[in-house]
Amino acid sequence: MSEIASISSLRPSQPWFARSGGRAWTCPPAPAAVYDFHTSLPEYAPTPLVELPSLAAELHIGRVFVKDESCRLGLPAFKALGASWAVHRTLAERAAEQVPAGPVTLVTATDGNHGRAVARMARRLGQRAHVFVPQGVHPAAVAAIAAEEAQVTQVAGGYDDAVREAARAVAGAPDAVLVQDTAWPGYEQIPRWIVEGYSTLFAEVDAQLAVAGAELPGLVAVPVGVGSLAQAAVTHYRSRPAGPAPAALLAVEPETAACALAGLVQGAPVTVATGETTMAGLNCGTLSALAWPYLRDGLDAAIAVTDADSARAARDLAALGVSSGPCGAASLAGVRAALTGDGADARRTALSLDPAATLVLLNTEGTAANPHHQENPS
Q1: Where are the alpha helices (DSSP H) in 155-238?
Q2: Which residues of 275-308 are buried (b: 16+ CB within 10 A; e: fewer)?
Q3: Strand, coil or helix: 57
Q4: Are 201 and 81 in contact (CB under 8 A)?
Q5: Bridge-based pairing state of the strands 219-223 and 176-178
Q6: Is residue 130's pLDDT more than 50?
Q7: Biggest alpha carbon–alpha carbon distance for the chain
Q8: pTM over 0.85
Q9: Strands annotated E in the chain
Q10: CA-CA 20 to 30 A from 81: which of 189, 228, 259, 345?
Q11: Residue 40: which residues within 8 A CB-CB, separation 6 or more?
């Protein structure tokens, strides 16, 4: 890949990838109708954007803000944004096509938060939900999905296995629809709606930074699982009209499931074998086929972090008043690894990061979203 600026290692197991050219890439924006839809929901409220000056001092950067998704539409993670818009569009399409009326079964696979969000939307709208859960998801997370009146099927395998089982469950079933947040050839429309749903988060960040008198971000750190949130981030920051320099985008993954980083290094999408991690929502071995071109062309850098890295970040965020599970805290863990320690100057240069820049960390889940957080505090 000619755009690669550097591929190095912070330690043998923690590679760092950076490329040039990401900020020059452009794409169309998300539809404005998404934000209008979310703001029309009775339970809608923008999630907080919290400024943390102590982190700015630690990271030697101008200002640091955390987008706190620990309570989004009544759930402890950002996933409700994508699920609500995708379910809304799915049901609207069925009505427009005059599909016979009656309850629909919304089927999905999940590491926790997405499945619970789909189940919540199904229950609220008088539909059914069937959620496939892979090995390693905490029993309390499974129970939270079941509490939304969903049928839960536990799969003897990883996340990718659960996705395959969910897809098989809807084959030939006219009253069932797969609402999955990863795409593959032939299955792209609903994952695209899910990605569009996440655009509301970034629209809120823009408005909240303006209220705070802050510049547009110079760096945004995004936790990556199948890549849908990262795709939404790329879409938002690479679809801006001419004006201030767009943000650098840093993808953060668990070392046990760093499929985006591996793909970026190799220049092609790859599947990696996943291991155990407390960052359950990021424990995905294959990127969404829809997300890959956006990440390949629009990201600036990628890094992988350990469970210990995210646990420390979660503790520090908690001390600053931000509820963060391991996945949400991965953003801070990744930025710490990138911007401090040996080689930090070179990594900052690769990100074109001004010392006075604004940094936005996406805290994608609260502690209530991930029971592993309570069991593994160190």
Answers
A1: 159-170, 189-197, 199-211, 228-237
A2: eebbbbbbbbbbbbbbbbebbbbbbbbbbbbbbe
A3: helix
A4: yes
A5: unpaired
A6: yes
A7: 62
A8: yes
A9: 4-11, 14-19, 49-51, 63-68, 105-109, 128-133, 151-154, 176-178, 219-223, 248-254, 301-305, 358-363
A10: 259
A11: none
